[in-house]
Specification:
It is built from twelve helices and no strands. The protein has 180 residues and is mostly helical. 24% of the residues are buried. One of its GO terms (molecular function) is death receptor binding.
């Protein structure tokens, strides 16, 4: 799992409603009003900031400024520690065992992602929640669904199941790429 996303998730869960409102206000110049109005959690705000490439693993100055503005020095120090530890600059060519197949699937599946998730036994309700959380980002919908599936299955989440589901949906090229 991406350490930067894990860090953002922990930040999100520690934000109060008033801190989230302050962050949304501070982002007004960078993010459209309509998009900001739909944000209900820190995770959703961070997703938008990631989409618009205002923050990323190697570039955290904007995020640092936001957190300092709302007087969350504890989060600023966690962010600085993250950068100092070098995790922000970790090589991308060595993803974790589960991330590589997910990456390949996200790059190659597209609009038919729900068919694959159904083959994996993922419920419609969970897919609808993922779509609602990421309404305009197809790739993120698939990525979140795969992560949710992995959490749901736990140790039983196997790459072979992913390959079998892809083949069952006649996505043999993607399945071949995952096998590689």
């Amino acid at each position: 799992m991406d350490p930067f996303l894990t860090l953002l998730h922990s930040f999100s869960s520690s934000l109060s409603d008033s801190e989230l409102s302050s962050l949304k206000f501070l982002c007004r110049g960078k993010i459209g009003k309509r998009k900001l109005e739909s944000v209900r959690s820190g995770g959703e705000l961070f997703s938008i900031l990631l989409e618009q490439q205002l923050i990323r693993s190697g570039e955290v100055s904007f995020l640092e400024g936001l957190l300092a503005s709302i007087k969350r020095e504890d989060l600023v120090s966690q962010l600085k520690h993250f950068v100092e530890e070098g995790e922000a600059n970790a090589p991308d060519d060595q993803p974790d065992v589960h991330e590589k197949p997910f990456e390949v699937i996200c790059e190659n599946v597209g609009r038919d992602w729900k068919i694959v998730m159904r083959k994996l036994g993922f419920s419609e309700v969970k897919m609808d929640r993922v779509v609602a959380a990421n309404p305009f980002n197809l790739r993120e919908q698939l990525a979140q669904s795969l992560r949710e599936w992995q959490k749901w299955k736990g140790r039983d989440a196997k790459v072979t199941d992913l390959i079998k589901a892809l083949r069952g949906c006649n996505m043999n090229l993607v399945a071949d790429r995952v096998e590689q």
